[in-house]
Write a structure and sequence with these properties.
This is UDP-N-acetylmuramoyl-tripeptide--D-alanyl-D-alanine ligase. The protein has helices at about 10-15, 65-70, 95-105, 120-135, 150-160, 180-190, 210-215, 220, 240-250, 295-305, 315-320, 355-365, 385-400, 410-415, 430-435, 460-465, and strands at about 1-10, 20-25, 35-40, 50, 75, 85-90, 110-115, 140-145, 170, 190-195, 230, 250-255, 265-270, 275-280, 285, 330-335, 345, 370-375, 400-405, 425, 445-450. The chain folds into 3 domains: about 1-90, Udp-n-acetylmuramoylalanyl-d-glutamate--2,6- Diaminopimelate Ligase, Chain: A, domain 1, CATH 3.40.1390; about 110-320, Mur-like, catalytic domain (UDP-N-acetylmuramoyl-L-alanine:D-glutamate ligase); about 330-465, Alpha-Beta Complex (Protein-Tyrosine Phosphatase, Chain A), CATH 3.90.190.20. Helix 10 runs antiparallel to helix 11, helix 12 runs parallel beside helix 13 and helix 13 packs parallel to helix 14 (about 410-415). The strands form 3 sheets. It has a 9-stranded mixed sheet with strand order 8-9-7-10-11-12-13-14-15, sandwiched between helices. The radius of gyration is 24 Å and the shape is globular. The chain is of the alpha/beta class and about 475 residues long.
């Protein structure tokens, strides 16, 4: 991200003071200006700062000299790069240094900043909030996470995009290990913290749903006294978030789809897909283009976040009524002609047991034949087999017409459904399932593709859509 007003290396040096172990720059370098922070040497150019981050496949230090030759004025590195003309700030940990730069940059701005965390629906909710902010302020006066770049590197780059013209921003925050959210929360320092839900995700690293809720709840702990915590009152972990808000001394703004659980914003999804929202001061309906209770809950979270920022309900309604699902996250497509005009729902980017069951319940209300193509769910820990089986059992209970799986883990779901070689088939891998798609009878029906991203089921979506 290029700066509106180039900063000096003196500012950068101060931002990294606690992380710095050495300097390879002269006093006059401190007045040099820099335009942009980058971690990709291929993008490095005149006036940039290159942060050399060691990764699993590549080490940025191997490309630091190249960045210097491309015109970078400063290298942030963990060891000296010999032969590089650029100034160098040597740090203990380059990845942590990037977060410190982003933290210092974010501190310059006072606009409303919404952070979205939770187990499922983060990206959709973030983009819904972004759509509302765009409708309210215009594209040039708001900032949002692009895609799902929600780890410390992605969040750093998003925050570095903040400018004084921005009236509001929304940042997605994701984690799968203890301690990661603490880093993100410290960087983002939101004014509004949105928690979508707490579900069975990353249980290989976070042993309980309550622990997942507590980790995500660190966004609430990072709020200022004037901040707001937004979360579902009808989530089993809502007490955790309410306690965090109370301890922080911030206001909670809750939403609920359960008539027996009171909240600031009571929500109802009607049979025709209309989302009804009723609060103390407002009551309005939204005709959503995206199906499923899980997406209605995402919309309610986004609406709640907007309402506490005093955004008019009509603006919220207009933004959410024009919102369409993102690729891999429930996007509705037309299947190729050879699949008989079926509707294809691409939900292949992310999956845990609860989101898979939510997709099944959505599918159960769609046109038959109802076909669920299910792949391995990652990072579930010792309960993996049981939870894959739970998905298959739920599909059978709901009367799903075809339940096809690919992958060793997903096979447990097929066994629970009942493998019969027709309605329920278990394939060794994704490519074997793709070969069998020519036998799929989907005329006029609905196909849902659901798996963790690591399963690579986007290729199945490509085949079904005729790409």
């Amino acid at each position: 991200m290029e700066m509106d007003h180039p900063e000096t290396l003196g500012w950068l040096k101060d931002a990294l003071a606690e992380e710095t172990v050495g300097l390879r720059l002269h006093h006059h370098h401190l007045e040099w200006s820099w335009k942009r922070i980058t971690t990709d040497s291929r993008e490095a150019g005149e006036g940039d700062v290159f942060v050399a981050i060691p990764g699993e496949r590549f080490d940025g230090h191997d490309y630091a000299k190249k960045a210097s030759e491309a015109g970078a004025v400063c290298l942030v590195v963990e060891h000296e790069i010999h032969g590089a003309d650029a100034a160098q700030i040597i740090v203990r940990n380059a990845r942590r240094a990037l977060a410190r730069i982003a933290r210092a940059w974010r501190a310059r701005f006072s606009c409303n900043l919404t952070a979205v965390g939770g187990s499922n629906g983060k990206t959709t909710t973030t983009q819904m909030v972004a759509a509302i902010l765009r409708r309210r302020w215009g594209a040039d006066e708001m900032l949002a996470t692009e895609g799902n770049f929600n780890n410390d590197i992605g969040v750093s780059h998003t925050l570095m995009g903040l400018r004084f013209r921005h009236r509001a921003a929304v940042v997605e925050a994701g984690m799968n290990h203890r301690g990661e959210m603490a880093v993100l929360a410290d960087m983002i320092r939101p004014t509004v913290a949105v928690l979508t839900n707490a579900q069975r995700e990353h249980q290989a690293f976070l042993e309980t749903v309550a622990e997942t809720a507590s980790e995500n709840g660190l966004l609430i702990a990072a709020l200022p006294e004037s901040g707001h915590a937004v979360f579902p009152a009808d989530d089993p972990c809502s007490d955790i978030w309410a306690s965090l808000a109370l301890a922080r001394g911030v206001k909670s703004f809750t939403f609920s789809f359960d008539p027996a659980v009171p909240a600031d914003l009571m929500c109802r999804l009607d049979a025709d897909g209309a989302l009804a929202l009723e609060g103390e001061r407002e009551s309005f309906q939204i005709a959503l283009r995206i199906a499923g209770l899980h997406n209605a809950r995402n919309a309610a979270a986004a609406a709640a976040a907007a309402l506490i920022q005093d955004i008019d309900p009509e603006v919220i309604r207009e933004a959410l009524e024009s919102f369409e699902a993102l690729p891999g996250r429930g996007a509705r497509l037309h299947a190729a002609e050879r699949f008989g005009g079926a509707t294809l729902i691409d939900d292949a980017y992310n999956c845990n047991p609860d989101s898979a069951i939510a997709s099944l319940r959505m599918l159960a209300r769609e046109k038959a034949p109802r076909i669920f193509i299910f792949g391995d769910m990652a990072e579930l820990g010792p309960s993996s087999e049981k939870w894959h089986a739970e998905v298959g059992a739920e599909a059978k209970r709901l009367g799903i017409d075809y339940f096809w799986t690919a992958g060793e883990k997903a096979r447990a779901g097929a066994l629970a459904f009942g493998i019969d070689g027709d309605r329920c088939r278990a394939f060794r891998d994704r490519d074997e399932l793709i070969d069998a798609l020519r036998e799929l009878r989907a005329d006029g029906g609905t196909i849902v593709v659901k798996a963790s991203h690591s399963a690579g089921f986007s290729k199945i979506v490509d085949v079904l859509s005729g790409k």
